[in-house]
Design goal:
Helix content is 55%, strand content 0%. It has three helices and no strands. The protein is mostly helical.
Length: 71
Amino acid sequence: LGSEDSLRVAASVSLDRIVFESDTPVPLGGVPSDPSQVPRVAEALARAKGIPLEECSARIFENSCGLIRKR
């Protein structure tokens, strides 16, 4: 979510369609991606969507749990 284009795209996607992947080899804003970056991504997504961080985090967590349950 480092670029303005990425933020615009993320903001346009329905929150129930978003999960976070934390082991991508692609750096996020010049910082290597790892699980410690998840809070930073959640903050950026919440700002881009104009919603509270707590709401964004809860929805992403629910989405992730839904994927695990479907397996």
